[in-house]
Amino acid sequence: MGYKKFDAPGFFGKFGIVIILVILMALFSSLNPAFRSWANIINILRQVSIVGIMAVGMTMVLLAGCIDLSVGSIAGCGTVIAAILLKAGVPWWGTLLIIMMGGCLIGLCNGFFVAHLDIPPLIASLGMMISLRGAAYLITNGKPVFGFPPDILFLGRGMVLGIPFPVWIMITLFAVGIIFLSKTRTGRYIYGVGGNEEASRLSGINTKKIKMFVFATSATLAALAGVVLLARINSGQPKSGDGYEMDVITAVVLGGTSISGGEGNLIFVIFGVLIMGVLKNGMIMVNISDYVQQFISGLVLIAAVAFDRYMQRIKQRQVKAYGG
To answer: Where are the domains of the chain?
Structure first.
């Protein structure tokens, strides 16, 4: 009589991420009431801002059907080089510009390897990740860099209207990214290349330029995250950003961006980023050991990818059922 059958897979595929976030917050709040304090909420937002900044670029990479494992090392290398530049007397804004331009160049190299040399994105970005991590240790001789002027610290520690400045950077980037992906031709091309690269190429889209663009964007934002991280910890640590690539990828996939490309929304990636922050902060507050935290983080990534593949199969069956 006109009733529409409830589409459970579709509902949970779209809003499950929000439900999970609410459940996690309720769980940790019950285990430790201090979790829901305003001070801790601000702390969570400050912690997730670094991952959130990188997640905007990673979302574009995954939407284009690629993956970028080098973002953590780009952030780490950017952190130590920025510290050296600041110590040498380069102003903070000049340092930020140089680091972001360097990140963009690295991203273009990644894009060139993938688009023009046909190196699989996993291998190209993995090689860059290892090389840049080694470079960070070579540049610093394995030692942290201290003693630069404090004028850059506002980027990582400043507050605006009671909210940490890195969070404002993250919010701004998400807003720009959402508009870019939904309202511009290049944004639509990114979805097209990830959904069906060959069809996009035949329709006149320069798929190689799109791939180089998304890698350049991802690396530029990773470099920016590195400078923000430097300003937050007030030292250039060669191990900075270590493991961040897994947190970023997990957050983006949790947010509903398909690992196969062509499908995702930055709005829901925000919830994926928040889940990673809530999960890590909550586990610390209930005294779960680092080893267990690593174990759970790995399971979350596996679960996110498995759920993505499950949803893809559901949609394929629906297409066959309605199309056949």
So the answer is: 38-242+257-264
